[in-house]
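#help-structures
NK: newbie question, is this the right format to request a structure? protein is Porin
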Amino acid sequence: MNSLMKRILLGAIALTAMGAVTAQELTGYAGGLRVKETKENTFTGGVAYTHPVGDYLGFSLSYWNEGHPTDHHRDGVAGQVWVRSGYNEPGWNFGAGAGQYYYFDTTELHSKGSTKYTNDHGWAAIYSLQATYHYENSRWYNQVQLNHISPSSGKDSTTLLVLGVGYQFSGVKGDKLHLEGPSTDEAITLMAGQGITNSLDSERATIAALEYRRAIGRYVDWTVTAINEGSTAQSKRNGVASQLWLIRSVSPKVEIGAGAGFYFNAKVPDADGQRSHKAGLISIATRYHLTRRVVGEVTWNRVVSDYHRDADLFLMGLGYSF
């Protein structure tokens, strides 16, 4: 996890340095995927946040789900640099991007023993081409994008063709505009939701969390979160996570953010072999300031374990900001 944390933090610092630029883009995608080695087709989808820098350069953070080809359930997060033909003009513009993709792959082992699957993690190169159509007098746009993901560890390469619908947020600086003093932002948020074990059966459990969040800069938050992942044999893990977040305002009331950090487990789920009390936690969140003091939050979290008990934690809750 040390290498992952360093790369994510470097990306966060780079995006934070661009705070003076106002434009931001959020795009949702759906489409099809082709596995090169097995010549198999499946579905795919994703979401991306893109930050233009001038007219011809951009940076993006994205999440991609690579569907369910035989024996694999793979998804991951990517950071890319983009070169584009133009920006924010009606009609078509084109772009090419390249970067790194950190994947999570639940792989069936076809084993006769008790261990039926494994959670593999690793890095892959990701290369992309896109064509975007901006509508006149509108912040909405449509996009066609082609991604090629090429792991370096012997994993299958994939090609994704997706259609996207996006919205361009303009007119805000991106910092915590809802605050009079960004450096004093603190919040306590109680959340509940569902946890899904990254296994072949995707076992589910009711989960809960209590988050303390503090702004340590205009674009950076720090959180400490107590998490209870439920009581099933697959999910009975609880502990405390500490994360750093890159936070961007897309309107005076709405923030989006990406966080990464460490998750220290007091209790761990049943698993064959060694069970570690340390894991990683990667998160994406949306926060909506209902009032000056009350904030709603929706969060997706990926627990990254080293003993094949990765999990998705979907949480929703209300917090008090002070």
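mod (FA): yep, format's fine, and the tokens are attached above. The longest helix spans residues 2-16.
NK: thank you!
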